[in-house]
Design goal:
disordered C terminus, alpha/beta, 3 domains, about 375 residues, Rossmann fold
Length: about 375
């Protein structure tokens, strides 16, 4: 009998015997590893977790089922809550980012031993990077991996035009999140933690920075506070040294772009097999793009192919042609090299890139052949 069979038999036995509390406890222990293996079942896991937390007592019950704090005037909730955050299986980060996130998880596995040794685990994290590189997704991933609810500050609800209200809302959010183990995400952190020497800001926001500094210093080790910013230059200098760890999220490099593009274009929803030549060309054109920007553009192309009943290859080729016309000379030369090495003639490369034959002869080695191209492609992967 395999482990899944044992789980089913044990759950059935407890249910038939009417041992409700034992059944809840067993399900609570068993559901997390299942959802880690099967992210496609997250929607059912959220329903189960919501029921269990409503029916259970203790601290976990407080944070998972307690009414969220609201703005007194607008009655808008100041936080968004996810009991079991859903994370796509194709989630990808650069190696250094993934390594840092894994270390945070590892510390939580050794929580008791670290506390006994007088070495509390990482309590506060600052995520820095441009939009769309996976900062918010990393917070959701950490919440899922540590089996903690994710609380996300709703900046629109928190900010108020009334003097003193914004500060009061922030304090309410911080106190709520401290009550029990959770992960609090302060997205767009620069909006509430601006430099105190900024003459354009009113006194209230300057005082708010002091509140945030104290909250970061005093954050309980049972939870994690994550601040994320797209504009680190706007943060008050005192903020930086308060965080236990700062993680930089760069825009994806070539190997990650290639891998990410493949995952999107080779997904089960679209079975068309595309020429491998297209992937590195797309990667080159998306050199300055974030994961979110790449996904948005590729999904737009997939929709276009679907609604117009066209092959994805033709749609992508047309897209590449239009983009290459606007590309820099350096990018055109790089693409010409890729196209030449993939077997296209100089005539076709010239038509595709708009480069002259002299430029193509000067910078592109037409004798390299497909083998060299595929070797380079595999190395990039």
């Amino acid at each position: 009998m395999n482990d899944s069979d044992k789980d089913i038999v044990h759950i059935a036995r407890l249910a038939l015997k009417g041992k409700e509390e034992e059944l809840k406890a067993y399900v609570r222990r068993a559901i997390i590893p299942i959802l880690k293996r099967r992210p496609d079942l997250a929607v059912y896991g959220q329903e189960i977790a919501t029921y269990l937390t409503k029916e259970s007592g203790g601290v976990r019950h407080s944070i998972a089922s307690e009414i969220l704090p609201v703005d007194i005037d607008s009655r808008q909730e100041l936080l968004r809550r996810e009991i079991l955050p859903e994370v796509p299986p194709s989630v990808t980060w650069p190696e250094l980012v993934q390594q840092a996130l894994n270390e945070v998880i590892k510390e939580r596995e050794y929580y008791n031993k670290l506390i006994e040794a007088g070495l509390p685990p990482t309590r506060t994290l600052l995520f820095v990077g441009p939009p769309g590189v996976g900062k918010t997704l990393a917070a959701r991933w950490l919440a899922r991996e540590t089996s903690r609810p994710l609380l996300t500050l709703d900046l629109a609800a928190v900010m108020s035009s009334f003097l003193g209200k914004t500060g009061n809302n922030i304090r309410t959010v911080l106190e709520f999140a401290k009550r029990s183990p959770s992960i609090l995400l302060l997205d767009e952190f620069d909006a509430i933690a601006k430099r105190r020497d900024d003459t354009t800001e009113v006194g209230e926001l300057k005082r708010l920075v002091t509140v945030l500094l104290q909250a970061i210093d005093d954050w309980p080790s049972t939870g994690i506070l994550i601040a994320a910013t797209n504009h680190p230059e706007l943060l008050d200098p005192a903020i930086w040294r308060r965080f236990d760890r700062i993680i930089d999220f760069p825009k994806p490099k070539e190997n990650l772009r290639l891998s990410y593009i493949e995952k999107i274009l080779m997904s089960d929803e679209f079975s068309e097999v595309l020429p491998t030549d297209l992937y590195p060309i797309l990667s080159s054109l998306f050199e300055d793009k974030s994961f979110a920007e790449i996904k948005r553009e590729l999904e737009r192309l997939r929709r276009q192919a679907f609604v117009h009943n066209q092959s994805l290859k033709n749609v992508i080729t047309s897209f590449l042609r239009s983009q290459i016309k606007e590309a820099s000379l350096k990018t055109k030369i790089i693409l010409a090299k890729i196209l030449m090495s993939s077997g296209l003639s100089q005539h076709k490369v010239r038509d595709f890139t708009g480069l002259s034959r002299d430029t193509i002869r000067k910078y592109c080695d037409s004798s390299s052949g497909k083998n060299k191209f595929h070797k380079k492609y595999k190395e990039a992967k």
